[in-house]
Write a structure and sequence with these properties.
The protein is an alpha+beta fold and 322 residues long. It is built from 8 helices and 10 strands. Strand 6 and strand 7 form a beta hairpin. The structure holds alpha-D-galactopyranose. Residues 253-316 form the GHMP kinase C-terminal domain.
């Protein structure tokens, strides 16, 4: 019997910066997706999920994951297909998926499933693939399976994260720096509403960033001075979010290291309102949830987290008795 458990992630700060090679600071959660089962001799993957009505049966090798039914099987098929393209031999498998992560809540349940499938399929040869290559493979799988042009944040945080630390990721260099979250801080995650990035405006935001980059070059290198060259008001606001958010990730990480928690909380606030007003990936319910959390005097800052359009909020609190 083989069993692999992979965490979800929550993003502390740095949203909608990864797909332009910017900075992000997510951390792995202590909620996991687990696949348990046995390898088989027939070239098939049979998986049941405790959270889905229908099981998936996938014949190897997988050529087109985007047509697999039921839909949750596309993430599994996407990974198996990418492994096939790499020339990796994959055995058959029969098993079960369980998760303690809420699904479709913006905590990367799909990335956790992808990484878990890859680790099961690679088995003893897992060490042949670096954490970065594993994350890139699962990102390609997600693109092909779901059609959502996501960045690398979720997969790389999950592949390289350590419990109790956030991962400061430079999404251009694909470098990861682990930032220990001090014991006197508590990260709060609140689920507010279900969401899916498929059919959301996520892809529109990615397209806006491509437009901006045609005007001013790579957003990851842009500064406030470059914003003056963008006349379209919508693109101007989008660029202002990305440029300021990259800076906030740097500043937030420094503030955590320096234990300047008041400033860290303020950067989270600024991030929320930048996403709400300039990037328009929040909504009234999420804004109210953030404001509600802030009525607790021990909460230092709170913001919408992840892709947006619903999902979860994240807050930072000074731990009681510290
Ligand atoms: C989703 C995507 C990530 C990232 C966030 C927004 O979680 O999967 O790549 O773009 O949205 O920061």
């Amino acid at each position: 019997m083989i069993s692999v458990s992979v965490p979800g992630r929550v993003n502390l700060i740095g949203d909608h910066t990864d797909y332009t090679g910017g900075l992000v600071l997510p951390m792995p959660l202590d909620q996991y997706t687990t696949i348990t089962g046995t390898t088989t001799d027939e070239p098939m993957w049979h998986l049941r999920s405790a959270d889905e009505d229908l099981p998936v049966t996938i014949a190897l090798p997988v050529i087109d994951p985007s047509v697999v039914e039921p839909r949750w099987g596309r993430y599994v098929a996407g990974v198996l297909s990418e492994l096939h393209l790499l020339g990796q031999r994959v055995s058959g498998f029969r098993g079960t998926v369980t998760t303690t992560l809420p699904i479709g809540a913006g905590l990367s349940s799909s990335a956790a499933l992808e990484i878990a499938v890859a680790r099961i399929a690679l088995g003893d040869t897992s060490h042949n693939l670096s954490e970065t290559d594993l994350a890139l493979l699962c990102q390609r799988a997600e693109h092909r399976a779901s059609g959502v042009p996501c960045g690398i944040m979720d997969q790389l945080c999950i592949a390289s994260g350590k419990p109790g630390s956030a991962t400061l990721i430079d999404c251009h260099a694909l470098s990861v720096t682990h930032i220990v979250i001090p014991k006197d801080l508590e990260v709060i995650v609140q689920f507010i509403s279900q969401r899916t990035l498929l059919g959301s405006e996520y892809a529109d935001r990615v397209a806006d960033c491509h437009e901006i980059e045609k005007l001013i070059g790579p957003l990851r290198l842009a500064t406030e001075n470059d914003l003056g060259q963008i006349n379209n008001p919508r693109l101007h606001r989008r660029a202002r979010h990305v440029v300021s958010e990259n800076q906030r990730v740097r500043d937030f990480a420094q503030a955590i290291i320096a234990k300047d928690y008041g400033s860290a909380g303020e950067f989270m606030q600024q991030s929320h309102w930048s996403l709400a007003k300039d990037y328009e990936t929040s909504n009234e319910i999420m804004d109210q949830a953030v404001q509600q959390l802030l009525t607790d005097p021990t909460v230092l800052g709170a913001r919408i987290t992840g892709g947006g359009f619903g999902g979860c909020i994240v807050g930072l609190r000074r731990r009681k008795n510290s």
